Structures are given as structure tokens and as C-alpha cells.
């Protein structure tokens, strides 16, 4: 009888090793809205930009409210300089036009005089040789040749004056266009320094990627860094991150149980809607990689949800693996 009991226990151990008991996987996440406005640090003329002011975290703002202001003093200074430069260049263009027009008109006048001299010389040279002395005839022919040469020179001078006027005005217009483009660029940058809410909802600050602390006014940020978001108070979902070990056992449509920390005595049904195919490092947690995932409520909860609420996500019958 004792031997039978021993063999039974051994059999149970072997069976347990062959088919390990599966434990419940618990993830952490937070309530968010699928409708959100993400505010990123704007592109500036420097490699970093300072955030001067932020609306207080948790404040519910309305569409159109200013929620963040970035330092645009450098861009404003450059804009003022370019506006002054543009005004000066426009005046210089007008002055250049008058100078070039004067040179062109002078060249036109010289050509008209040269043409008249040729016409006069042609009349004198057309006098029959029998009516004037041979010496005079030679002088008339020589004068005609000189007048024709002067006309050629005057025509060339007019062409040069016309080309010079065109080139100089074109160069000045290019300078003006460059300045106008720089002004438009700086105005575009300045327009992004004040950020307005595009929806109504609470504000949540983002974490600084280096210090892992909440971003605050006065911080110097790199362009495109996430600063804050404004989330709508509807279309709620759960954002979570799944450890790379646990992610292999989960997929879209996996059912989960959701417990919101603010309502610990209630639980709600949910379902994994998507798991990112690209993992992310979460240095504040561990050296492992995590896959961002979105979980949807199966039914809309009958409680007052707000973005940022923390949630425990229970996934039943998952392999007993450490979610570091």
C-alpha cells in the first residue's frame, strides 16, 4: 500500500513537470483616450528649445486654449533683423532701378546720336566724286566709316547696359526673395511656439527621456520630444506594455479582466486590440524590451473614467513567466 502511494506521488510530480500549472499574468496600464492631442517640442533654429510655460497637469482645457509656450526669442530676434533687412533691400532695389534705367537711357541716347551721325555721314559720302575734290571725297568716306564704327560701339554699349540692368535687378530680387523666405520660415517657427488645444480634456505631462522625471517649464528639450498630451473624455482604452517573454503567448483578441485602482472592488471585461510589432526599451523598469499594447473595454464601464487612471490587467491561463 505504501509503495502504491509513493508511485502515485511520483506520477503526479512527473505529470506536473510535463504540464506545468499556468498562472495568471498581471500587467499594469493606464486609462487613455483613442482621441488625443500629442504635443511635441517644435523644430527651432537651435538644436534645443526651452519650454517657458505649461498649463498645469490635470487641468481640463477647452479647444483653443493655450496649453504650452516655447522660447522663441532667438527666432523673434532673427525675424526682426530680417524684416529690417527686407525694408532696406526694397529701398536699394528702387534706387538700383533708377540707376540702371538712367544708364540704359543714356546708352539709348548715345545710340540715337550715333545713328544720326551715320545718316549725316552717308549723305556726305553719297555726293558724287565729280562734285567734290578727291581729298574731300576721301574725308567723307572716312567719316562714314568712323560713324558706322561708333554706331556699332553704341549698339554694344546698349546691349551691355540692358544686360547689366537685367542682371543687377535679378540679383537684388533674389536677395529679397531669400529674405522673404527666411521671414516666412521664422514666422512659421514662431507660430509653433504657442500651442493651443485642439480638443477638450485633461492635460498629462510626459516623462523626460533622460532624467525620467515629468517635463516641466524651464526644461531644455530636443525637437520632436513628447511634452504633454490632451486626451478627450471619451473613447477610453487601456495602454500597457508587455514584457518580451510574455508577449509571445498573447495576441489580438485575448480576453482580459480589468481592475481600475480607483475602483478596486469593481472589475471589467476587456480584450487586447493590438500589440505593437516593434518593442521599446523601458529603462526605468529593466533592461528588457516591452511591446506597447492597446486594450479595449468589452463594454463601456458605468463609472467616471479619466485619462491617466492606473489599471491592473489580469490575463488568465498565461505561462508563469516573470514580467520584469
Write a concise synopsis of the structure shown.
Helix content is 41%, strand content 27%. The protein contains four helices and 15 strands.
Query: What is the approximate shape?
Result: rod-shaped
The biggest sheet, with number of strands, parallel, antiparallel or mixed sense and barrel status, is: 6 strands, antiparallel, barrel
Let me know the CATH homologous superfamily of the largest domain.
Efflux pump adaptor protein, beta barrel domain
Q: How are the strands of the largest sheet arranged?
A: 1-10-14-12-11-15
- The total of beta strands comes to 15
Query: Which range does the strand content fall in?
Result: 25-35%
Structural class: alpha+beta
Mean pLDDT: 88
Q: Please indicate the count of domains.
A: 2
Assembly type of the shown chains?
Answer: single chain
Helical proportion? Answer: 40-55%
Protein topology:
Blueprint (H helix, E strand, L loop, with lengths): L1 H17 L4 E11 L2 E5 L8 E6 L5 E2 L4 E5 L2 H53 L8 H58 L2 E3 L4 E5 L14 E2 L4 E6 L4 E8 H4 L7 E6 L7 E8 L4 E2 L7 E9 L12 E9 L6
Antiparallel strand pairs: 1-10, 1-15, 2-9, 3-5, 3-8, 4-7, 5-6, 7-9, 10-14, 11-12, 11-15, 12-14, 13-14
Helix pairs in contact: 2-3
Amino acid at each position: 500500500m505504501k509503495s502504491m502511494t509513493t508511485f502515485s506521488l511520483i506520477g503526479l510530480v512527473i505529470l506536473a513537470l510535463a504540464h506545468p500549472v499556468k498562472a495568471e499574468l498581471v500587467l499594469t496600464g493606464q486609462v487613455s483616450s483613442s482621441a488625443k492631442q500629442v504635443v511635441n517640442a517644435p523644430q527651432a533654429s537651435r538644436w534645443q528649445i526651452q519650454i517657458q510655460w505649461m498649463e498645469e497637469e490635470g487641468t481640463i482645457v477647452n479647444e483653443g486654449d493655450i496649453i504650452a509656450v516655447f522660447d522663441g526669442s532667438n527666432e523673434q530676434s532673427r525675424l526682426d533683423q530680417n524684416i529690417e533687412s527686407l525694408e532696406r533691400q526694397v529701398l536699394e532695389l528702387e534706387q538700383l532701378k533708377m540707376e540702371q534705367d538712367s544708364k540704359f537711357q543714356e546708352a539709348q541716347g548715345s545710340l540715337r546720336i550715333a545713328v544720326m551721325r551715320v545718316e549725316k555721314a552717308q549723305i556726305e559720302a553719297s555726293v558724287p566724286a565729280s562734285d567734290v575734290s578727291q581729298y574731300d571725297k576721301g574725308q567723307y568716306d572716312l567719316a562714314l566709316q568712323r560713324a558706322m564704327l561708333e554706331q556699332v560701339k553704341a549698339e554694344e554699349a546698349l546691349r551691355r547696359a540692358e544686360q547689366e540692368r537685367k542682371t543687377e535687378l535679378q540679383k537684388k530680387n533674389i536677395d529679397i526673395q531669400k529674405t522673404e523666405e527666411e521671414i516666412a520660415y521664422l514666422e512659421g517657427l514662431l507660430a509653433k511656439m504657442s500651442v493651443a488645444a485642439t480638443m477638450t480634456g485633461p492635460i498629462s505631462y510626459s516623462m523626460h527621456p533622460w532624467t525620467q522625471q515629468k517635463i516641466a517649464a524651464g526644461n531644455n528639450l530636443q525637437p520632436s520630444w513628447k511634452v504633454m498630451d490632451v486626451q478627450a473624455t471619451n473613447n477610453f482604452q487601456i495602454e500597457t506594455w508587455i514584457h518580451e517573454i510574455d508577449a509571445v503567448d498573447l495576441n489580438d483578441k485575448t480576453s482580459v479582466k480589468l481592475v481600475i485602482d480607483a475602483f478596486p472592488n469593481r472589475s471589467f471585461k476587456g480584450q487586447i486590440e493590438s500589440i505593437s510589432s516593434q518593442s521599446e526599451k523601458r529603462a526605468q523598469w529593466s533592461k528588457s524590451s516591452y511591446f506597447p499594447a492597446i486594450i479595449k473595454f468589452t463594454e463601456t464601464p458605468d463609472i467616471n473614467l479619466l485619462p491617466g487612471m492606473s489599471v491592473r490587467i489580469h490575463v488568465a491561463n498565461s505561462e508563469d513567466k516573470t514580467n520584469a
